[in-house]
Specification:
By secondary structure, the protein is of the alpha/beta class. 33% of the residues lie in helices and 27% in strands. The chain folds into two domains: 114 residues, no CATH class; 251 residues, Vaccinia Virus protein VP39 (Rossmann fold). The chain is built from eleven helices and 15 strands. Strands 1, 2, 3, 4, 5, 6, 7 and 8 form an eight-stranded mixed sheet that branches. A seven-stranded mixed sheet has the order 11-10-9-12-13-15-14, with helices on both faces. A hairpin with a 4-residue loop joins strand 1 and strand 2. Helix 9 packs antiparallel against helix 10. The longest helix has 22 residues. The chain is globular, with a radius of gyration of 24 Å. The protein binds S-adenosylmethionine. The site of S-adenosylmethionine has 20 residues, from helix 5, strand 10, strand 12 and helix 7.
């Protein structure tokens, strides 16, 4: 174990070490990475606790293998060592038996160690006051992100990063944007802020959700901030009629088939760009449970069945968008350690996509559904 820690550090292949299954129940997990502080290399251990806080401690790199070794089985019962050359896992059983599974095969790819003082360039500043983030309780009035909202802050920024690199939106006219199933609408405010405040563009944005009280609250915040183009509408997205073909449709964690309604609404209203992060995937679970497909062997263990349904549902969604002429990319929204619901489906309408290609994609879609014995809701809507 000590050799393993020593060699991944010395070879420069260590990405991070995740320390989980802690002995102290107040601790959720710790993540250790190498950082460079004033020219000296340290192993920085960030510990996340159940009260939403994160603490750091820095260990001199020469002391790191021993320090990690001492934590195994005393502070943590599972340690995953992630490197550029594969992964190793150390597990300590209830009886104290230590197992090491080493899948690291060094091919010479080195990891760049980040400086401790580096400033990550977020699209929305992590340190400056931002009006909507203050109103929504993500930042205090001086611009500091509240500990409990760090994950939300990272999620919003990552979404904006993936939006900003997706497509060059026209700046010579007003943009029309939708957020469907907007909920408390952190994302709606962020997208509106990004285009209007950071990019000086003119935007009308319609955001729809079933929850009347939340919609009323969001409208009051928009009014208070003077976000005159940002409108919140209470209602079912099934019944919502967009005013025009949207330049962009966004949706974050619309539950189960609500994501299908979002995608169908975006496609049928001619949205140029679609960015949707699906939520739970129950629909396919129910259909696959009936059995009789090639995937039956993957249905025995519910955790694997869940992963199969998540991946199959979202892959079929991507394929359906492609069959409608979208260039589609499935991206990772945030660190999967923060939430498993971290896939972002990004579609950009390609008006040069041939009918032949669209037909081929639809045939492929139908054939996969047949093989799996499923009838996804999205296919019924489109
Ligand atoms: C998990 S929440 C996500 C909210 C928000 N996008 C976020 O990420 O914070 C899902 C939201 O979808 C809304 N929703 C579900 N089905 C809907 C429908 N058919 N029409 C409108 N809103 C719907 C719910 O009211 C809920 O606010």
């Amino acid at each position: 174990m000590l050799e393993l820690f020593k060699s991944v550090i010395e070879k420069g292949i260590l990405k991070k070490i995740i320390l989980s299954k802690p002995a102290d129940k107040k601790i959720l997990k710790s993540v250790a990475t190498l950082v460079n502080m004033k020219g000296e290399l340290y192993l920085q251990i960030e510990t996340f606790t159940s009260d939403g806080k994160a603490t750091h401690r820095n260990i001199k790199v020469s002391d790191a293998p021993d320090a990690l070794g001492q934590m195994v089985g005393t502070e943590y019962n599972q340690i995953n060592v992630l490197t550029s050359a594969g992964e190793a896992q150390i597990k300590v059983s209830g009886k104290g038996k230590v197992t090491l599974l080493n899948r690291i095969k060094d091919k010479g790819e080195r990891v760049t160690v980040q400086g401790h003082d580096r400033k990550k360039q977020h699209i929305i500043s992590a340190t400056e006051p931002v009006d909507f983030l203050f109103e929504l309780g993500v930042k205090d009035k001086d611009g500091r992100v509240f500990d409990k909202k760090r994950s939300k802050f990272r999620q919003i920024n990552r979404f904006l990063e993936l939006l900003s690199e997706a497509y060059t939106f026209p700046s010579d006219r007003e943009l029309y944007i939708l957020d469907l199933c907007c909920g408390k609408s952190y994302l709606s405010f962020a997208v509106y802020y990004y285009f209007t405040v950071l990019r000086g563009m003119s935007v009308t944005m319609d955001c729809v959700d079933l929850k009347e009280d939340v919609i009323e609250y969001c409208n009051s915040v928009a009014q208070k901030l003077g976000y005159t183009g940002l409108h919140f509408i209470a209602g079912d997205i099934n019944d919502f009629e967009p005013k025009a073909a949207p330049d962009l449709t966004v949706s974050l964690h619309a539950c189960d088939i609500a994501t299908d309604i979002v995608l169908a609404k975006a496609v049928t209203s001619g949205s140029k760009v679609i960015m949707s992060t699906p939520c739970c995937h129950h629909e396919m679970m129910h259909q696959l449970k009936a059995g009789g497909s090639d995937c039956d062997f993957m249905l025995t263990h519910s955790i694997l069945m869940q992963k199969l349904c998540d991946a199959a549902t979202d892959s079929l969604r991507c394929l359906m968008l492609e069959s409608k002429g979208y260039d589609v990319t499935a991206l990772e929204l945030i660190d999967p350690e923060e939430t498993p619901k971290n896939v972002l489906i990004r579609g950009i309408f390609n008006d040069k996509c041939s009918d032949q290609k669209k037909e081929a994609k639809r045939k492929e879609y139908d054939s996969i559904c047949q093989r799996l014995g499923v009838e996804p809701y999205l296919a019924k809507l489109i």
